[in-house]
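ARCHIVE CARD
SHELF: 3
SLOT: left
DATA:
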Amino acid sequence: MKNLHKTMEKIIKGIYRHYKGNEYLVIGEATNSEDKEAQVLYRDLNTEKLWSRPKKMFLEEVETKEGKVSRFEFISEESEDSWENKYLRALADYQNLSRQTMKDKQEFVKFATADFLTDLLPIYDHLKLSVKGLSEKEQESAWAIGVKYVLKQFKELLSARGVEEIETIGKSFNHDTMEALEGEGEMIDKEIMPGYILHGKVIRPAKVTVKKNQGDEKNE
């Protein structure tokens, strides 16, 4: 096996021992961009440092006290179970696990407040209803203006936390975000209870009544 690499036109990837004793993992061959000379790329198994050497020099023999020996002696071919492959697979698994863990943490943070919001949103809805039911004159009272300001802050806070109110008025019925309590058709008639989405996920569907659009009624 000592002289196997001497006759190789293509360097075999694997473990080589330098005549001075160090072992290296040959990664492959490359071509020098300046003089087009063939190079061998290899890594020191002790320091992980990368090296390159002209292929001709890599394969040549050198004079020692014991006579001529190969500069690099081929030891073993790289296999699927080599420490290098095991290390790379373990590193890839670790990186995948880290990415998944980070993604899970981000998802947890995004939706951890869902239960709290479920309890909080009815208060927001009641405040909106209390203002909506006021007369024009009552809308101008200090109390109503104060409630409107609180509602504005409430809406901005919810929006900053990724909460969106599901639009219903003037919209077609959406089975994914709405729940029809009564009626027939695909057009929203009334909104009975607002619905909300948290980071793209429905945490409470909008409760509505539906009706047929005018075109459908004429065709009947």
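SLOT: right
DATA:
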Amino acid sequence: MLATYSDVFRPATRPHKTIYNLSLVLAGSLLLTISAHIVLTLPFSPVPVTAQTFAVLILAMMLGRKLGVATILAYLTQGMLGLPVFARGLAGPAVLLGPTGGYLAGFVVAAYVVGAMAERGWDRSMGATLLAMLIGNSIIYLFGVAWLAVLVGMPAAISAGLLPFIPGDLIKTLLATLFLPQGWKLINHLRH
């Protein structure tokens, strides 16, 4: 396993590691909340466009699978407990059963898979980062569109829950592809 971004700055002693890890999870869940509130509502879709997929995948790459999943679960728990962290300021368990529930579940699986890829160095080159981001987005789409299809049918789920999101997600994927490998180059330069 290779180091993730979070490993580079992790303290060596146990109590400091725990505080560091908890701080990363809380900061990550705050980033997810902020990204959920960057909303574009599409009049033909029950699923809003947010910056969350970008945040989920970046966090997974930077934190690795364990902290990445812990961050997503902390975010979901906050929302289920009534904090208005979900898109459009929504909260409560009903959100997980609504049109965006599948995407939220997909965040957990995507964070695990993409985090595991980062632990294997997939965030070190542009090609591998691009592939990891595309896989992560595909996982989120798979869960999101499948659940949305249960609610509205497959043709509507594809036209309202997949196709409108592809252009924006491609832009976010390209940004991550440019950012992550360059960050490693900077870290390696500063180490030497």
